[in-house]
Amino acid sequence: MKWSSTTHPLPAVVALLLCAPALPAQDQTATVSVVDATGVPVPFAVVTAGNTTARVADDSGRVIIPFSEADSIRLRVRRIGYQEFYGQLPRSAENRYVVTLTALASTLATVTVTERASTPLANRGFYERVDRVQRGAIVGQFLTPEDLDEANASTVSAMLRRSRYARIVRSRPTRGPAVTVILGRGGCGMNIVLDGQLLTGTAQDEVEAEASTSINPGGSSRGRSGGSSPDIDQVIDARSVMAIEVYPSSANAPAELIPFGGDGACGIVAIWTGARR
Fold first, then answer.
1. 205 with 233: CB under 8 angstroms?
2. 196: which residues sit within 8 A by CB, 6+ positions away?
3. Beta carbons within 10 angstroms of residue 197's beta carbon
């Protein structure tokens, strides 16, 4: 007996299913665009969506955030020189949000619409490394100018208390007063990079490893000289710090910072000084 499509439609149905295009998966991200009152993008704004981790916008003022099923989302947006935005924004059909920041009156004379991305931090690769960490290419934590302004800390060590990779302790040397030291994993001293150069001659050089690390099984190679060196708070004026990068080890740090970080077994703290903008 010969089957026809009218008497046995199953093969035709199967063929249609095999030829049908796959349905696109629902987009799980949304885009936030940060602009000023004239519509010009505001680069490198710090954006927090709901209870998610803060993310830094790119040089075009855009940042990708997790998609929200809600009709609106609570956003907090900060950028040096602008009034902070905090509030609910409706979700568009394209999962896009536009946040307008108002320039602070005291900084209007210095705010320009040209070369906005050419900030000192951008020129030093800070925001490019922020993007790499946000994409998961390297592991690190950043204290942006906005973070430091909000913390309003009076010392560098107090700033670093916000880092999950650094531990701040007071060390009692064999002679002299107690000093503040920055410890990484395993309890050994982190290397401090100041404006692209390894900082030496401080109490960090005198920290003995409290325990071995997986990268440096013998512990830190730096010995104790007796505690006569100043600590980081005595060497660096917190008011001059515009941003900080913290990496748990040289294995996690960007290649451009590793040469300045010594062995980096216990982590690298890169401190950048200058005006916060």
1. no
2. 124, 260, 270
3. 9
CA dist 188 to 219, 228, 264, Å? 7, 18, 10
- C-alpha distances in Å from residue 134, one per residue of 37, 55, 63, 141, 189: 28, 7, 10, 10, 26
Q: Using a cut of 0.90, tell me whether the model's pTM lies above it.
A: no
Q: Please report, as a single letter, which amino acid is at residue 94.
A: E
Q: What is the DSSP letter of 226?
A: -
**Measured distance CA(183)–CA(167) in Å, rounded:** 5
Q: Pick the closest to residue 116 from 76, 57, 75, 63 (CA basis).
A: 57
Output 117 or 256, whichever has higher pLDDT. 256
Helix, strand, coil in percent for the chain, rounding step 5: 20, 25, 50
Report the Cα 169 to chain-centroid distance in Å: 24
Tokens of 8: 């046995």
Question: Where would I find the H helices in 20-162?
Answer: 120-123, 126-134, 145-151, 156-160
The model's pLDDT over 178-235, given as tens digits with 9 standing for 90+, comes to: 899 999 987 888 999 999 999 989 988 877 534 333 334 444 444 344 557 899 999 9
Both tokens assigned to 6: 């009218």
The whole-angstrom separation of Cα 247 and Cα 39 is: 36
Contact 242, 126 (CB under 8 A): no
Measured distance CA(243)–CA(109) in Å, rounded: 23
Phi first, then psi: what are they for 259, rounded to 5°? -60, -25
CB distance 143 to 244 below 8 Å: yes
- What tokens were used for 187? 């309890």
